[in-house]
Amino acid sequence: MTSEITLFVNPTAGRGRGARAALPAASALRAAGFSVETVQGEDTADALARAREAVAGGTGALVAVGGDGMANLALQAVAGTRTPFGLVAAGTGNDFARALGLPVSDPAAAGRMIAEALKGERLREVDLGRVNGTWFGTVLASGFDSRVNDRGNRMRLPVGRFKYDVAMVAELAAFRPLPYRITLDGGETLETEATLVAVGNGPSYGGGMKICPGASLGDGLFDITVVGDCSRATLLKIFPRVYRGTHVGHPVVSVHRASRVELLAEGVTGYADGEPLGPLPLTAECIRAAVRVALP
């Protein structure tokens, strides 16, 4: 493996934590003997083009510095290739890093761990989800939670994560369960009223909400969590349990497993790794061993 690696940085991740995290991570990698080239890009499209160019050019690894959005962008460049992927978690949610068992608050330690993994070729092949050619690492969300995202993204104030709390309250007041058609592995079809449907390659989203607590990055299957028709009062009772993953024991919640899932519902946007995919219908496939990750 070449000693030249690419540091893929989002300077705005976590209100500037991305830029601050890049320095100690790069220092740790250089101290381990690697030559580090930093790539940022003028915008998302330019950054992705530069990352893909680095991968195509034979970089020894693509190391993303940022949150779940930056990890998602990096996956678009590295998934399906033999180029190793590293992640220095420096965002707000960091759910993909948590699923991988990576440090989330120590960029220097993350840099040292990536260097050791690359030198020792400790690379684990993990599964990814894919929708119409777009890769994701954690959860494809739809329903109530995606409507909260829609509303929050339209709001200019308040700023930061608090606007999504405000959006949740507003959406809760107006929300009604939606008719879904869910097709698993091209066979079993569920037609149901659902509050939300989450397709988990990894277990959590939203900064530790374990919506699909049993999901594994190495089994070739999604865990699909369906929160059925329930009242606002029931949803408010279930919601706090999501942080522990115990909501799956509630009678209105069901969990299914499949390598391919088709979601159909009117007026619903799908979000994966917190990024919009577009309106349903969407078909997600779990792709085994889609990316090689530098791990502890």
Automatic annotation (TrEMBL):
<keyword id="KW-0808">Transferase</keyword>
<dbReference type="InterPro" id="IPR016064">
    <property type="entry name" value="NAD/diacylglycerol_kinase_sf"/>
</dbReference>
<comment type="similarity">
    <text>Belongs to the diacylglycerol/lipid kinase family.</text>
</comment>
<keyword id="KW-0479">Metal-binding</keyword>
<feature type="domain" description="DAGKc">
    <location>
        <begin position="1"/>
        <end position="135"/>
    </location>
</feature>
<keyword id="KW-0418">Kinase</keyword>
<dbReference type="InterPro" id="IPR017438">
    <property type="entry name" value="ATP-NAD_kinase_N"/>
</dbReference>
<dbReference type="GO" id="GO:0005524">
    <property type="term" value="F:ATP binding"/>
</dbReference>
<dbReference type="Pfam" id="PF00781">
    <property type="entry name" value="DAGK_cat"/>
</dbReference>
<keyword id="KW-0460">Magnesium</keyword>
<dbReference type="Pfam" id="PF19279">
    <property type="entry name" value="YegS_C"/>
</dbReference>
<keyword id="KW-0547">Nucleotide-binding</keyword>
<dbReference type="GO" id="GO:0046872">
    <property type="term" value="F:metal ion binding"/>
</dbReference>
<protein>
    <submittedName>
        <fullName>Sphingosine kinase</fullName>
    </submittedName>
</protein>
<dbReference type="InterPro" id="IPR045540">
    <property type="entry name" value="YegS/DAGK_C"/>
</dbReference>
<keyword id="KW-0067">ATP-binding</keyword>
<keyword id="KW-1208">Phospholipid metabolism</keyword>
<dbReference type="InterPro" id="IPR050187">
    <property type="entry name" value="Lipid_Phosphate_FormReg"/>
</dbReference>
<dbReference type="GO" id="GO:0005886">
    <property type="term" value="C:plasma membrane"/>
</dbReference>
<keyword id="KW-0443">Lipid metabolism</keyword>
<dbReference type="InterPro" id="IPR001206">
    <property type="entry name" value="Diacylglycerol_kinase_cat_dom"/>
</dbReference>
<dbReference type="GO" id="GO:0008654">
    <property type="term" value="P:phospholipid biosynthetic process"/>
</dbReference>
<keyword id="KW-0594">Phospholipid biosynthesis</keyword>
<dbReference type="InterPro" id="IPR005218">
    <property type="entry name" value="Diacylglycerol/lipid_kinase"/>
</dbReference>
<dbReference type="GO" id="GO:0004143">
    <property type="term" value="F:ATP-dependent diacylglycerol kinase activity"/>
</dbReference>
<keyword id="KW-0444">Lipid biosynthesis</keyword>
